[in-house]
Amino acid sequence: MLLRLQTDDYSVNYKPGKLMFVPDMLSRAYIKDDRDNISDDIECFINMPRSYTIQTPYGNTYRRNTKHIIKTNENFENVSLDDEIPYELPNEDTVIEKEKSDNSEQPYTTRSGRTIRPPIRYKDYDELEMRKAMFIGELTKLFSSNDLHEHIIYQTLFFIDARNKDDPEIHQLTTRLVDIAFKQPSWGQPMPVAWVPLEIQLSEMKTARICKNFVKKSELQGYNLQNDDFVLTDSQFENFLKIQHSLGKLLYFGEHGIDDFIVIQPSALVNVLRSFVTDEMFWPKDKEIVEILPDLSKTGVIYRTDLYKLWEQKHFKKLIPTEDLRKFIIEVLIHLDILVEPKQYSGAGGSADFFLVPCTIKEKAPSSFFHTEEMDEKAICLSYRLKKSSVPSALFFKLIGSALNVLPIKETDGRPCLYYKAAVLSVDNDNECRIHMEGNRIVVNLINRTSRLQILPDIAASIQECLTLTLTNVLHFYYTCMGKDIKQFDILKLFDTEVGTPCGKGFCFIPVNEAITKKTWTCENKTVHTTDLLLNWMLDETFGKEECPPDCSGIPTVVLFESPSEKHLMRLASVLDITMFHDFFLHLGMETKDWHNIQYTYWQSVDAMFMALMTWRDTGSMVTFKKILDALEKVEDNQHHLCKVLKEQLELPEIAGFGFQDTPSESFLSTLPNKLGYCVLPLGIELGLRITDIESVFVRHPKQLFSQVYEVLKIWKQKTPENTYLNLMLAIQRVRGKQFLKRNFGCDN
Question: Which spans of this chain does the record mark as coiled coil (predicted)?
């Protein structure tokens, strides 16, 4: 044989058997035959005792390998390659025993001490394919009704042997992921060359021997200043961080109070979360902290000191070793609504001793929480029905966390009324608000301890307004996390608002637009309900939409060439329709991108339109009432809007209990936020505050909506000389209407 090979040119390369998958697998093929009493006849041997062929009585011929070739010291110099090597034929019992040992699934140890694991055989391969098919079928059934099922990739499954770094399916998985990455819309988009040095420096930080998880923004800015010709300006540096955040390379929140640090290893924040948001099997066993997480799962409360104790564990202390980092982590978790710092809307400073953690609580609400019989004559109901069939639990946890910034949690026997997917919020001494989730519906019950006839419309409307704003903010957070650009107007289309009442053992709801047009409706239980009290949830939609008298000639010509003030622009924003504002804005000479940028910052429609008009005014180009009137004509909107804007409402009836020229007390101002609802910007402008003062309120109280209203009232009282009841009531009348004054302060016509 060697002489024959010498006639050819060839090279010999060694390839381990474990890499020759097909020959190796075929040589170990398992033949399953269920028929009994089959005596296999050995037909012949090949030259080497490594293998032999077997022929069955049915005419099938198979090749068999001996299990192992053990190295020997025997001398084979006198053995010719062409000679038949003597070999003792195994008897039938030996063959059967060999097949049994070949089929063993257990690893075994050789004489040298090496552990051998049996390879995957044909029967295992068939079973693997069958399990893959079953798994794919189960996944298909599970996600078939999911709204995003078209984007879920589960047709290609990879079963990887984690013990084998050379598993071929690892390469297949890598190839598949690269293919998916190529299909992403952002793939291949050019990045600024000036970013390259800073990206390299960040990469070196991540791969350093002593890896950093967090870095101060000032430190990274220092690296930036060392990059000579590639130094980024402050705005470019900020943009770089935000883009890197959107790509998932780092975490930078860019919000006041949490912009000092940058998380360069995003997984580090996940590991920190595991300190208290984790499964029971991973709870610590240390005596000093063993009770912290069980108590947290029952009450939803964790003390700051207990949180610090958890972070003293070795693996967490390594992640966040300094006090500054721990404070930063707490502020980030509050920003994400994972931790909720309980605060009253009075806006008192200082840090809370404990936090509420809605996502960790396991205890379900007591049965009395859902007793509709007890609520029948005491409650009015509100529902947000999400149009998406798949609603993550985390959405409700974040909603509850945000809602707790609006209203304080109620306590019973010293325990917060916080449960799994349910909570009780305190409105005042007479009213409470219960929130829970049923499928894709968020149900809100406003309950008066005496009768629902005692529920003030302004309190119900203000709660509805704040909860709606909170829900839109939460939905915006989730959509932006998924990389989607979505406007406030589009987010309002993601859910339907309904009003309802307790009925039987549940609740009956009717869409708001139907409730406005009907005095009664018949529910599925064949019960007739009235809608009058249910509309207390809604603000007075007729306010600000009164028409001018037929003989109105419009605004005087002399006024057309004057410039509008901040109050004029705010009043104009209050009467304009958000659906036509974009076209109106373009006719003022502005651009679409300006409007979109403002929409992403200000979620209230009136606030967004006002800030857009302020942007137009700051351009200084033809900023007159004439320009506004021309734009209104082009979009075919009501030209008499300007009549309402310029009309001053100076007639104010006497208010019972105090004089117009007195200064409101702190206690009186503290009662207004729950009644006024969320009207920070309109109220502040009508009270004569500067935009900078109002924006500072947003920075100090980014989530406490009622706190923002109260803070505006305090600034007005402290900084404005005209801080009288008269000016306050005139501003409230302009923002909420004369009927609001009648209901709340005993005003007469």
Answer: none
Q: What is the CATH number of domain 666-745?
A: 1.10.533.10
> How many Å apart are CA 397 and CA 333, to the nearest integer?
13
- Whole-number Å distance between alpha carbons of 641 and 635: 13
The count of C-alpha atoms lying within 13 angstroms of the C-alpha of 509, restricted to the half-sphere facing its C-beta, is: 19
Is it the case that residue 223 has pLDDT exceeding 80?
yes
Between 1.10.10.10, 1.10.1510.10, 3.40.190.10, 3.20.20.70, what CATH number should domain 193-264 receive?
Answer: 1.10.10.10
The pLDDT tens digits of the residues spanning 66-75 come to 544 445 555 5
pLDDT tens-digit profile of 551-582?
Answer: 666 677 778 888 888 999 998 888 888 888 88
For residue range 684-727, list pLDDT tens digits in order. Answer: 999 999 999 998 888 888 778 888 899 999 999 998 888 888 88
Q: How far apart are CA 582 and CA 592, in angstroms?
A: 7
Tokens of 523: 């529910």
Element (H, E) at 504: none
Contact yes or no for 668/612 (Cβ under 8 A): no
Distance from C-alpha of 169 to C-alpha of 160, rounded to nearest angstrom: 6
- Condensed to tens digits (0 to 9), the pLDDT of residues 282-303 reads 888 888 888 999 999 988 899 9
In terms of Cα–Cα distance, which of 450, 689, 484 is closest to 566?
Answer: 689
Beta carbons of 598 and 489 less than 8 angstroms apart: no
Which structure tokens are listed for 223?
């690296």
Of 437, 440, 436, residue with least CA distance to 391: 440
Q: Which residues contact 169 (CB under 8 A, 6 or more apart)?
A: 158, 159, 160, 161
Q: List helix spans (H) across 384-452.
A: 393-403
Given this chain, do its domains 193-264 and 666-745 carry the same CATH topology? no
- Give 410's contacts (C-beta < 8 A, 6+ positions apart): 416, 417, 424, 425, 426, 432
| Architecture of the domain defined by 557-646 | Orthogonal Bundle (1.10)
- Residues with Cβ within 8 Å of 678's Cβ and at least 6 positions away in sequence, in order, are 462, 465, 466, 469, 604, 705, 708, 709
- Is 678 within 8 Å of 709 (Cβ atoms)? yes
Model-level pTM?
0.66
What are the φ and ψ backbone dihedral angles of 40, each rounded to 5 degrees? Answer: -80, 130
Contact 649, 608 (CB under 8 A): no
**Count of helix runs (H) and strand runs (E) in the chain:** 32, 20
User: Taking the domains of the chain in order of start, what are their residue ranges?
Assistant: 2-119, 193-264, 272-358, 366-537, 557-646, 666-745
